[in-house]
Amino acid sequence: MAEEERSPEERPEAPEGEELAVSSPAETPVEGEEVLSAEETGEESPEKLMQALEREEEPEEGVPEEEGPAESEARPSWWGTLFLLAGIFLCLGGISAAGLTLWKLAHGPVRVSSAPPERASVSKSVSSSTLPVPLVKTEFSLVLKHFLIPLETEGGAPVFIKASVVLYFEDQREVQRAKRIERVLRGLIYDTFRNIPFYYWRSPEGVTKIREALLRVFRARAPEGLVPKEIDVRGYILK
Prior knowledge:
239 residues, Tetrahydropterin Synthase, Chain A, 3-stranded antiparallel beta sheet, alpha+beta
C-alpha cells in the first residue's frame, strides 16, 4: 500500500460544527471501480415497483371480470324459467276449471215440475178459499181375519186360501152386537168359503162374486137378524 494506515491517534479531528463522514468499507468505492446506477444493475426503484403493482391491481378496460360461482348460480337457467311458466299456466287452468264447475253447480238446469199448470192453480185456489171442509164419513166396521180354507184345484191337488172379511154396519151399536156373536159370524163365513170352487179365487172378478155370494148368505141366514150393509173380502193362495 502507498500509505500506511494511520492510527486513531494520528487521524485528524474534524473541526467544530462538522462531522466526519465515516463510511464502511462496503459503501466506500474502491479506486478503479465505477459506481453503477440502479438502471444499469437491473434493479428497479421502490417508486417504480409501487406503480407496477397498482397497474396490475386495476382491471384492464374492455375485459369483463370473471363471474364467480355464486353469481352464475344466481342466474336462473332457461329450463327453470320454462318450468316456472308451465306451472303458472297449469295453476291458472285448474282455478278456471274449478270456477266453471262451481258455476255449473250453482246455475244448474231448472227442473220443471211434472204437475200440469192447471192442476197447480186449482189446488192453490182451493186451499186459499174459505169453503167449509166436508166431514169425513165414519165407517162402522168389524174386521175378521185369518180364515184358512182348504180347497182342491181342478186337478184334485190340495190348496189353501188365506182370507179376511170386513163387515160394514150402520152404526156402532150394530158393531158391538157383531162383536158379541163374532164366533157365530166366523162359522157362517167359513162354511160359505168351503162351498166356493177354487178357481173363483184366481181373479178379481171371481173375488167379487165371492163377496156377493157371502152377502146373500147373510141376508138369508144372519144370526139375530144382523145383516151388514156391505162386505169386503180379501184373500190369497198359499203355495
